[in-house]
Amino acid sequence: MTDPARPGPAGDVADRAAAGFRHRYGEPPAGRWAAPGRANLIGEHTDYNDGFVLPFALPLRTVVAAARQDGGRWTAWSELSDSPVEFGVDEVAAPGRVAGWGAYVAGVVWALRDAGHDVPGARLAIASDVPVGSGLSSSAALEAAVLAALVDLGGVDLPAERRPRLAQRAENAYVGAPTGIMDQSAVIRCRPGHALFLDCRTESVEHIPFDLATAGLAVLVVDSRAPHRHAGGEYASRRASCERAAKLLGVAALRDVPAAGLDEALALLDDDETRRRVRHVVTENQRVLDTVELLRAGRIRDIGPLLTASHASMRDDFEITVPEIDTAVEAALAAGAYGARMTGGGFGGCVLALVDADRADAASAAVTTAYAARDFPAPNFHLTTPNTHPRP
Ligand code: GLA
Question: Which residues contact ligand 1 via a Cβ below 6 A?
């Protein structure tokens, strides 16, 4: 959408969206709709393998102020961009006709219309606290907030559990990013104080209590500021090798390889790289299940080693980390974090570390020092407990 290093505007995000609407269109909006960013506690690159994920919503959100507009036209303004976007029915007749950040808006209109819904023309003003390009799902938050606005403005009957697929379709087919279902599910279905245990095959969910504050804990989110190096191509190639491996193993998806059957499956594969990719996915699914068990038992601190093992698996087997990310994980662990791992698609983005709330400052200072020692640009930090604000 814009330069991720550009600082966000000041003031409450919902106020900014409403003020932006009034300023741009000369009247108040009909309403405001919001969706949060997310961090994934554990379960990386498992979603498109029909596996398990455990994201939670962040107290950072994207807000869309909107009103209907006649004539089958959509106009969108964002505080994060100098160029507003305007399109009509021709541009949403087929994917790919609107580019840049407007593709996320047009993609949602397209996906709704393609699913047979009657979408009203609309004016939209967008404000966001979710950093762009940091792997905290700013795209899914934008899609989900726009979707909620259009659905309400048009009186479209689309229950929450059917919205993630539609938003994912906008991203996959219109924007052209071959992502799984995790991000859109997280930003639409997460609840405050809980992590979302999602079975990506059936889309069934369980809200797992994740009450960090009561346990004296916090999650430190470190924005590595590492540029996303070849992220798109690498993501697609990881996905392709998982799909190839599933075919070779004769299963519908790697989710169908149980942890207990891993060695047997690996013995059927003849190249080492594919074996490592499979090992990551199979062990990661098991780590999600183990994490859920511990959280159900109220043993939050004990998930630390699973988080760290997940990171090692992403670094060594799935090969999606970068030096800035590994440095942040090592420094947070050395400063006493219970566990730390990269969160999101990889090749940059964020690290999350589970820390005692009163050790969070020490952990962030340790990461900053480790970065300086390696001449990396200073990282950004968000201290968080799971939260979500479905409505402004
Ligand atoms: C990105 C994608 C998700 C998921 C993660 C990796 O965030 O959008 O669908 O695949 O990467 O877990």
Answer: 44-45, 47-48, 179-180, 182-183, 344-345
